[in-house]
Fold these 3 entries.
Entry 1:
Amino acid sequence: MKRLTALVGFILFAGFFAVHAQVKVTGEVVDDTEQETKLAKASVMLLRAKDSILVQHTRTDQQGRFSLLRPDTIPYLLIITYPKYGDYYKTITAETDVAVGTVRLSNVSQLLEEVIVTGKIPVVIKGDTTEYDASSFAVEKNAKVEDLLKMLPGISVDASGKITAQGKTVEKVLVDGEEFFGNDPTLVTRNVRSDMVDKVQLYEKTSEEADRTGVDDGQRIQTINLKLKEDAKKGMFGKTEAGGGGDTDRGFYSGTLALNKFNGSQKLGVFGLTSNDGTVSLNWEDRDRFGFSDLSTEVSDDGSVSFSWQGDAMDYWNGRGRPRALSTGVSFADAWKDSKHKLNTSYKFGIIENEEESTRTLQENLLDAVLNSNEESSSKARDQKHRFNGRYDLKIDSLTTLTLSLGAAAGNVESRRSQETNTFDGEGNQINDNVANQNMQSDNQSIDYSAYLTRKLRKEGRSISLRVNGNHNESKGEGWLNSTANFFALDSVSEIDQRKTMRSFGNNFRTSIAYTEPLWKRLTSSLQYEFSRGVSSSINSSFNQSAATGEYDELDQEFSNDFDFNTTRHAANLSFNYRSDLFDANLTNNVRHDELYQVNNYEGMDLSRNFITYNPTVFFRYKMSKSKSVYFRFNRNNNLPSLTQIQPLRQNTDQLNIVVGNENLRPSQSNSYNLRFNTYNMLKNAYMYVSLNWSQQFNNIQQNIQIENGRRTLSFANLDRVANTVSLWTGLGRDLLKKQKVRGSLDFDGTYNNYFNYINGALSENDNIDLSLSLNFDRSVKKGFDFSIGFRPGYSLLRNSLQPDLNSNGFVYNSNANLEYYLPWKLKVYSTINYLYQAPTKVFSEKFERFLWQPGVTKKFLKNESLTLNFFINDALNQNIGFTRRQNASTLVQDRYNTIARYFMLKVSWDFTSMKGGTE
């Protein structure tokens, strides 16, 4: 790491002298006829004369003055532009500072018969849109759009493909104004050649709600639109990859085949994948690239739009165990009749098998004692699933749009788990132990559906919309439980030998109708009514072995239950939206009537409760400029208790931890406050942001704990203490060495979480504090030496009021580096490094230290460099150990688990395409 630090210092030192070796170009811009009129905010650009590549860009100040740096002494072209004025051109050849003096621009109305030759302008700002001329920026041969974006002022792309433009994350990349391959930016940027692109446009896109209703809801999505050259939308692209290797115990393999064929808006994608190296699905960019996105959108009660990921174990590995995966799928999308009809469907099948071994150390803090537990467990699981998703959009007429969505899934899960637990008091005396083995098998299925109809009415801003959505899910299975627990203080043994059956299902339905009405030019109102109905059921049965027959058919009613839980909601929203160039505001008033009805079928008991709640939202945003804004949101919400929290049942799957429901739970309330400020300077490619969040939980539903002879009984209850969470995120970043494309950023994160529960009747106050400072440097130009280096020191505090001296406070340090060096002959050597250190604490006396290093080398073949050979060693120092440390109320927990460690692999991949690019 010392070498990395020295390298960064050298780059910064060299860059300091490089900057001071540059010379200045200065001047003043005025109106030709009224020279006392200074032209503020005029665009000033410096281009290399030989190829028109943009090297510097600035704007004039309020007095019309400008100053920019000239990198070297080769000839440059100075261009000055201003809306509705003729352009100014001047060749700069002098080797010293250049003062161009007063530049007089003529209004186009005065240029009646003059011919103005404007040439090619690299950057043009049109209102809220920044437009880049793609051919004005130099990229390597066969470069992709991602490489082009890295060269554009104000835009950066990190190693994962995440795009940041003017300080904000780009969430959507369009092609000629339309979604081309899906809803993830990298699906275009890593596969489309840059020479296909004519113009790159950057702007903030309004939400789908605003587009469909005509009412601006204030939601904005940072968007890039690629305007293609002619004949650039037909073709095929794909990827095939195969890898093999091993360690001292077993072999490792990975194989992927993906193909996408398209013709205009029509797209057909297929893929297949198998591996045991932790790759359980296409990575997040390839999923969208080939049409298998699991992202969905939802409109909340206050009208805001949220994005959620619908993935599961078939799409993501959590780093625990050693998984084996097989996954395949097909997708189809098309649009016809001028996009009046749009269809998008996909089907996916996958199998995941995993083996996990773990150890857990726990400390439970009591008022006058502590309990220490050690757990060892091993498990094997097999998860198989089919999944289908479909969406159909119909533009009925110019004012009416209908969207229909359908999703379905069916799967099977098999698992075997063995666990051994030992509990000791503070003196080291053993209190109890438990050995449990459990086998389970379940079949699961679900279906989701939705319809969304919007109709714009004759008056601008007036609209009506109707939503219908729902889902049905069902799960059934059976299993076996064998458990033996020894309670040494009681000199007793508890043995369980049972067959288990389980069945659960749920039906949920929601419909809403909303009407929007403009009150005047900048103020609109919206009235919405919602009805929703939820019906769920849970049946869990335990059977003991019959002494007479030997069959497991004797019902154990103590550990069996049959429970129904139904909810009905009527809700009304009245909201007001104010929109102007500088100020946006929203007030949403939400009133809900919730009815909860629950039935214990075994005991013949039922309970019905009703709640009327008010859930307001207040939002405002002040735009100080196009690149600087402040934002505030307040939201109050009432949260209903869940089925698992209220059901009065007892389970014996873990004899040392018994969970008991509470049928008398009340809703909890939460207040959340969010204050944000962000600014971006395009000329310096610099940003800064501050985000402060505070949430309060009233009547918080928390688990209370009663411990007797080492056995924990956990019950849910509403607490009268207010829980608080406060977090602060702030950061800044900018170009440090612009010519060398070196950027730096500094970020601070801090979170304070304070909450309460009762342990053996004593109030326990729990404090979690996490602080971290992050310093990062990066360079990515795909030439010479590229790097991304980060240093992240921090401090973690895990404290409990019952035993404040037995805390788990400690220093935490994380550092990472991605290093790449591009050699001749299409060779690249690289290293990925991660270092983690967690200091010993008063509870966990051992430190944790892990240094992960993955070195590798790649070689590209073929004229278009589409064939790649990659050799790497994963975890070359063999230090990858699964590790977590956390606090759950009064319990401090440390986990260690097996994961994928050192192995070597040789991979060959071929990215093929028949896409046509333009020629200059």
Entry 2:
Amino acid sequence: MACSCVEVGIRKSYRQADVIFAGTLVSKTQVGGLVRYIFRVKHLYKGSAQTDTLSVQSSGSSAACGSSFNLDTDYLIYSWLRDVKPQSILDLGPQVSPYLYTSICSRNKPDRFANFYEKAVLKLL
């Protein structure tokens, strides 16, 4: 079964997301079918962060709508909180529940492709 996404506008994506931020990918770890990405946050559009880094999980498979990010690249990330810990997430080390999750169906993109309009709307919401 392949991943199938419906394109969603900025405002609806904002309402659906729990945390939206721009940041640089500094680390990624894959265990089983999941990947943990650690981002150094540059700008927080929605939500809160206890430190200057955020950990975001995603499926390791694009067929399961998993996101793929490159190290040392800036991204705009839309993520949401999940309460259920899949078994393979436990193998990634200590977890705080709930944790952040994202997928290719979010509006994630390299920060250089996030246009002025999208960033302006996010700042106003």
Entry 3:
Amino acid sequence: MLYKKISILLFVFGCLSSLQAQNFKSTAPIAVNQKIKKGILPNGMTYYIYPTDVNKNTASYYIIQNVGSILENDQQKGLAHFLEHMAFNGTKHFEGKGILNTLQKQGAVFGKNINAYTSTDETVYNLDNIPSKDGAVVDTCLLVLHDWSNFLSLTDAEIDAERGVITEEWRTRQNARARIYNQLAPYYYNNSLYADRMPIGDMDIVKNFKYQVLKDFYKDWYRPDLQAIAIVGDIDTAEIEAKIKKLFADIPTHQNPKKRFEIAIPNNETPTFKLALDKEISAASISFMIRHAAEKPTGTFADLEKNTQRQMAFSIINNRLAEMAQKQECPFKSAQITYQGYSRLNDTWYLGISPKPDKQTEAFTMVITEWVRAYKFGFSKGEIERAVTETISGYENYLEKLNEISHQQVIGMVKDDYLNHEVIADPNAEFEMTKNILKNIDTQILQEQISKLYTKQNRVITVTGVEGEANLTQEKAFDIIQKAENDASLQPYVDSFEGKTLLGNLQVVPGKIVSEKKETAIDATTFVLSNGVKVHYKFADKNKKEVELKAESFGGISLYEPLDIPSASQSANLAMMSGVGELSNIDLEKVLKGKIANSAIGISSLKESVSGSANLKDIETMMQLVHLRFVQPRFDAEMFALLKQRMQNSLKNRANDINAKMQDSLSDIVYGKNNPRIRPVDQKYIDDLSFDKMKSFYLDRFADISNFEFYVVGDLTPEILKPLLEKYIASINGIKRKEKFKTNVPKWTSNKIDRDVFIKMETPKSSVRIVFQKDYAYTQKNRILASFLSDVLTLRYTESLREKEGGTYGASVRANLDKLPVSKAGVQVTFDCDADKVEHLLPIVYQEIDKIKKGEIAAEDIEKTRTNYLKSREDSKNFNSYSMNLIYNYFENGYDMNDPKNYVNIVKSISSKDIQEFANSLLSKADSMEVVFKPLK
């Protein structure tokens, strides 16, 4: 249903008094979306087809298996997930890596366009954004789904090869949070089968299971009555349906199939509690759950009414909690209360808290008290009106962009329909029902809805504690709940927000557009304003009713001394936390309720920037926000204290965090412990923060709007834009200074770094960081060659390190060519692996690089990469963001993205020799770094 897809709905108009809607009976069915074609084949397989050209000339293909790790027996733990991996290792029509090799030739990328996931209750495979106008390619994709359904090869050799890959996936994911989850799962699921069926499974079983055990799981559960296929994209529905009926007819119906059972989490009459600890946990968390039997969807008005009311109530509660978190004295960093699906047969009321260090008791007390206040006293008129406005606005925006719903959004609705039996609603009909619901809303209705969920049964409290902190205990937690529920002194929430506006009393005196120039090459216009600002504009309606703005000026943090780097770096954060104009950030959020408009500012090492985006009807609000960022920024001393407190909190227990240790060690090794321009966020950094300096640096960076270059792209005409530019941009004084950044590039400690770093860790592993860097000429061809080198190496490492050696879940390669502050190229390789295998795997990393330097590059790898780039470029043209990149690169970087000579022709011309020469030129005499993190035994 749409109410689940819009998420915390963001919309614009409509108040209680102005809603016009018909009345509905509770049993009235929600109209089904007729755009989606749904059918069931004679063998029991379900299919869905949804035509859309949101991504022109492409389609996505999914197979949804109503099968997950919950169906495993004790000898199969991990095999549902193992089977998912095997689907990419040979099928009836695609031997070995045939699926990957075939689709990569169409520009698809493994892990991005070709992927899958396994959970406790489902396994889903996807082929995303595959070219759809070649009938042979469409047939191939359907054949892949067909083979995934019933024709996996499951050869002994491929099974054995995959054992190591999955073991390394487990190792990569086996961090402190995973170990904590293993401690808490029996409490979350009340010792039901869910607690013992994590999809990654048991590594002893993964390493040693007999081949037939996996084949038996496949035979038992991968069958058409538990499968749905979904095809979404630029396709002909009738043609696809005919192909499906013909191709999938040969998949046999199982005789005497095993029953697809579902597990209900047992009830617990008395509350349960668990405190979990791990030496590598650096921050605590608290959860309070109340499990319920899942509410089976009826597809009626009553469902929509109940869920809309709940969503509004929880949204208001979470707004209150978010406001509290913006106070320094608040004991929690964040908190949220929701009601959500939990498992097939259970839903849960859920309260989650991230407390500040040593504030667990206070945080739990405050959040529980706020919950009790909500269900006892309800909500203010202003809170409800803002929630109604937000909901209406969200539907309006959604309906305006029905043709822009992404493939993934459609698939989400399909999965809800197939797995959870939630109707795929007609959005217009659902909106009419929602207006009727909102017309009758009041605090009593909202209170009744949420009070029903706060039951005495099935309560579970879990605490992820930190060693050395005052962790919340069972006795204290239960006492806090009992006292809050019986607190006779509790008072209703007071809504202090009244009648504030964005501009307040600010008087804006418009300027003028003094000239405009057409840039015919890219069909753009440059407006020069009376204050010296240049605004580059291009109409783009790939995303209807959307407008995007950005502006940049050179200078940034580079202009300041090392001592001032903390204050300069954080000044934009302080301004964003403080609100704008006469409004605190809390009030600003309320003023913007129901408006789809935002603006942000940033200060980086080389630039200061302003950005904004809006729905067309709210573009003036966006422009007002941009105006205020320059003329009335806000700096709140309380927010300064909160910012420092948050940074201070992040330091506490940082030594427990393995990733933080690695990052700190890496920085020290590469740049030295006291490099003046590399400032780690430590106590000295926090002590060097100055409220006055932060304010001063912000005002300095944004003092001269004439030094900013603006870019505006979207579905708006010049007639709408020009008056707004004159009023909100040309009205800002410009002092016409000319600034550039300073080139302060931090130096490495050595041009050749080779270090092993030993760290104590609970789950032993090695993490490898290899980097090459060198000053290098910035050209379009070199930039593209860097990408080719990166992606060809990725293909090589996937084959060698992952598939052949089973040594890592995946190696990440990033090659880049930066233009500023100096033209520099680099290659970075990172991966995790078994500590005992790292010395065996490291030479392979360099061997693959040496092969490229020698010209030993598979032509197939180059063609796969080339096809992906050309396809991705065409795909990107389906979105307004392409037009923004087009005008930015044209005016800032001096090249026309639309001109084939600047991209397409280069990509088409890249040869093995080009990549070889680039690799040799870049890597010859390059600075190099190899840092390997190893477990301290």
